[in-house]
Protein: Laccase
Amino acid sequence: MGSRRKELLLEILGFLLFDGLLCMAAGTVYRHDWVLTETNYTRLCYTKPILTVNGMFPGPELHVYKGDTAIINVVNQATYNITLHWHGLKQPRNPWSDGPEYVAQCPIQPGANFTYQLIFSDEEGTIWWHAHSDWSRDTVHGAIMIYPKNGTSYPFDNPHQEVPIILGNWYNGDVMEIIEDALKTGGEPNKSNAHTINGLPGDLYKETYSCANPGTFEMIVEEGMRYLLRIINAGMNEEMFFKVAQHNLTVVGSDGAYIKPITTETIMIAPGQTMDAILTADQTPARYYMAVTVYASGNVPYDTTTGTAILTYKNYTNSSSPVMPSLPAHNDTDTADSFTKQFRSLATAEHPIDVPKDYDLRIYTTITVSTLPCESGSTCLGPSGTRLSSSLNNQSFVNPSIDILEAYYKSISGVYTTDFPSEPPYPFNYTGDNLPSSLLTATQGTKVTVLDYNTTVEVVFQGTNLNGPENHPMHLHGYSFYFLGSGSGNFNNVTDPSSYNIVDPPLINTVSVPKNGWAAVRFRADNPGKSVFMHCHFDRHASWGMNTAFKVKNGSSVNESLIPPSPMPLC
Structure:
């Protein structure tokens, strides 16, 4: 039998199993058609074509109930390859719809289409979707709102209204060209020109740009009413402070799971993270700014501007300027840390947690902005004429030409190796001063870790002082993990685990590893058959190679026939 005929038979089998899984779906099945196109948008006096889904920026919202299924047929009418990632969705026994290109699937080429099956299992709250090819996610993203299963309710008083608040960036230049140029020159990519709320930068930019109003999102509220803000940091490279003038926020959820309520004036949210926050319209009727600005933990270029939206009380007609909140300083680490350290899982009978009390495998990985040699005869813009790179345990990830998942199932050799180191290959004083430059150079490759089904994994992320320290938002695909704890300096594997919270740690999918410090997470590899991508959600770091992957085996107790073959041909 010819190889192409075998591939066609596998594809047919895949579609039959795909339909079978739909028949077994417990909840409602939704179907959507999404078309990726280039659409002209104007911000800050600049008009340019941007990648959009169905012409929308931000993109379409998905509204589902816990346990539902959504079928998204994506048609690529743009000029770039594209994939979509469903950030925070676990997709049990559904490995082909996660989205990272060359890890879980081949990209959807221009003129082609691909159908994603989204299985909503135990997630509840807010997650999101975004492109996962180069920097296309800057404009290709949107909110996913997961409501409690029918017959159940929120673990808090029902809000009167729910409003997505998507924090993002606007670049006057072409974002795809920006990262391509940076990779060619070896230097830092250009920073954004504005921060946005729901795709609009706000009216403070009128002071810099003399054209018509650059656009401001307005939220109308009624006095005494409660509003659930579904906050998403879709920004490319920066953690954000978010604040509403003279109004408290009560954070009740994060990354698709509930937490014990935290009442605060300011939230700090990293790229990739989502937070659910209750806002009560309990102030004097007026107009109030919502504002977003950078929390900059490191000494790297960042956009110092402030994006705004306006919260307006209904029937308030005074045209006076909105009240502006007092924002933290860009380097206010105390405010950022005091907020994030309050997170605890709700951990009730209705919303239980299952924290692994021990681990089978610990991966202790350094997180480093590294360098690579400049190509012969060229001069690069990185440190000492090198090319900026990034790495985990000195391994700078290289995308293969065939996706890892396909290579695994079709036994294609030479695509990846299974020797990602479980500890730093060169131990040193990771957060010390005056570190030798010899530690900067990374090794390139496509190294993964193979996990037996149901293995309990602890990952300790270790920040380093190489090329300057900063926070790193580390994201794991296909799983949520329990964030056990964090600290400053080098992780001590004897004393630091005693500080872990194993009673009610938050269940999240993106953790902000502190500058010159460490963070520990734990998860159980109970989602078989997947290639699980793990990477920094600063896109410049991901582009430089701060990534790795896990391959989770099916295991003897898992019926492999329940995992359908790839619905897409080889790359």
